[in-house]
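Methods, example record. To illustrate the input and output format used throughout this study, we show the complete record for DUF4142 domain-containing protein. The sequence lines were provided to the predictor; the line carrying structure tokens was produced by it.
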Amino acid sequence: MNKFFMAIMLATMGMSSVALAETPEEEAAAELAVAYDDAQFVKAAASSNLWSVKAARLAVRLAKNSKVEALALQDLAEHVNVTEGIEALAGKFGVEMPTELEPLGESLFQRLSNLQGNRFDRAYLHTVIESHRYDVAILSLALSSSRDADVKAFAEKNLPILRGHLDAAQEILRTLPQE
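The corresponding predicted structure is encoded as:
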């Protein structure tokens, strides 16, 4: 995996290390499976969702390709709705919602915001792919490991949405010209 995109995933999710595994989903699941905790899940989901909202807002402004812009608009609308569910879980588990990206995440966000044209579109799609792979992994883990009905319902409701974003980003990326 490209180091830049691995750094994005790590920074936005607040992870300090990742177990060696075959895929990003396995890496994320291995890290989280050690000791699943609903509060930690909520923190991770909130941090990742904040990244998705900020990145989508940026892409709405900077995307050159109309499909990338459309994905960003959809991603933004759906992640704003996801925020409501995360806020409810955060209240239940006493988790403070993040208002800023982690320092490394902010640095990577600034790098993304300095790109233009096709380079921006491709980099944005890569961030969507990596962050949504992580999101799918943590929601799958929550669905299988949580004993809390609200956490399970949240995961079950949002997994199809996140998988849809992931699939759409992968498909659009295949159609963009290489740099």
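Annotations derived from this record:
The radius of gyration is 15 Å.
Residues 41 and 146 are 9 Å apart (CA to CA).
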